[in-house]
Structures are given as structure tokens and as C-alpha cells.
Predict the 3D structure of the following.
Amino acid sequence: MILKIYNLSINIECNPQALKSKTPILFLHGFTGNFNDWKFVENKLPENFTPIFIDLIGHGKTSSPIDVKNYTSDSQIELLKELLVKLKIQECVIVGYSMGGRLALEFTLKYPEFVSALILESTSFGIEDESERKRRIESDEKLAEQIENSNISDFIKYWYTIPLFNSLKNLPKDKFENLIKSKIASNNNTGLKNSLIGFSTGRMQNFYLFAKTINIKTLLIAGELDEKYKTTLLRADYLMPNSKLKIVNDAGHNVHLEKPEEFLKLINEFLLNI
């Protein structure tokens, strides 16, 4: 369904009736993703939970406005809050992967009253060094320029060859090819370009400083082969008072795509104990 929030069209999928009696779980996808990335969990969650799938701004069937201000963390946080209000949700579990994990983390820190538990997969906690943050912003702006000057097909094919996604080469060939086709079909230049500029990791605060203030139960998930984010979440787990880190063997950055059964098992075990 399409919901109108702040004159933007937000594409979501949920069971309105189930929202009245079950605990909602809001799933937030990563960069170039859409809500179909999470559909493998549908009908496989514990009985007392119900999923809400959303296309984040600039992705899927949700609006891709020209004004980059719509893509900033502040704007996206307020958009999520209004979504929950519109759906009459007072509290939910949030699951976020990569870019979606950053949004989940930032939303939780600003509106903890809306979040009953948190699941973060391959999520950055920000960049501590000031000069490194500036370099990341410049790098994302160059990448955004590349998107603007190429067609979406070429960019998606390039994006999934970067070292971060090396382990995706272990997927069956047809699964990987279908992944690329689906990303090409569900993305556009404006949305991806503005997501990189407005929601760059370089613009994110250093959330290691606030990790110890997140008291809700949190599951952290990293792939064994993803050294950067495994290190990040090991540190976050040390700092957070109520977290549990799970490292999935033979998986890289996108654990839920590479090892969906293991991922589902982890989140279901977590949900049954919150």
C-alpha cells in the first residue's frame, strides 16, 4: 500500500488487522534494496509478531524527490515516526541492514519510546576521525556523480563488484543474476544519488559515544567474512549494556541474503526471548 506522509508516497506492506494484536517488526533494507529483500521472513516469524516491510526514500516504489534534504537522517527519522503514528503503532521491533541499520540505530537513539527491541545487521556506528568523515563524504559525492552520469544498470553491476560484496560470488549464478536484475528494476538514479549525498555514513554521528545508553535488547549480526563490520559490531557489543553479537560463518556483508535460514533462526530465537 502507498501512504502519503509529508507529501511523499511511502510504499509499505503489512497486515493492518495483525498490527492490532501482534508486535510489529519494521524491516529496513540497505542501499539499492527494497522491501522485497525481506520477504523471505514472511509467515516464518513467531506467531505473536507481524512484519512491516517498507521501501525507504529513494528506493523501490517510494518517492525519490529531487530535494536532497528529504534524504538526511533527521528527515528520514521523522518520516519513520510519522509512519508509526499513522499506523497507530506505539512500540515495535526494528530490524535494519547496513544503511537501514544506521537509520534504525539513529531512530532508536532519538525515539527510544517507539522501540521495544533492535536487530542490527552489518551496521556502522559512525566514523570517529573528523578527516576520515570528510573523506567519506567526498567519496560518496563522487559515487553520486558516477550514478548521475551513468545508467542505473551499469551502476548496479559496478556496485555489486566492490570488495564489500565479494562473498556474493559464492551464491549460485542464477541467484546472483536475479539479484542484479531486481536491483536494476527497482532503483533510479535520483534516489540512489541523493541517498548517498544526504545519508552518507560520513554525515553520521559517532554513535560509539552513545552505545552504552541503548538499554533495549539488541541483536547484532555480522558475517564472518566481513572483517570491517565484524570489528565494528564486536566493539559495539562491548559497549552496549543489553546486546548479543552473533557472527555467521561463511557469510559476508549481506548475511540475510547469503545465509537466509541462519539469519531467520537467529532473529526468531532473539524474538522469542525479548
Q: What stands out?
A: The chain has one domain: 2-129+204-271. The radius of gyration is 17 Å. The first helix runs from residue 16 to 19. The beta strands are 2-5, 8-13, 23-28, 49-54, 92-97, 115-121, 217-223, 243-248.
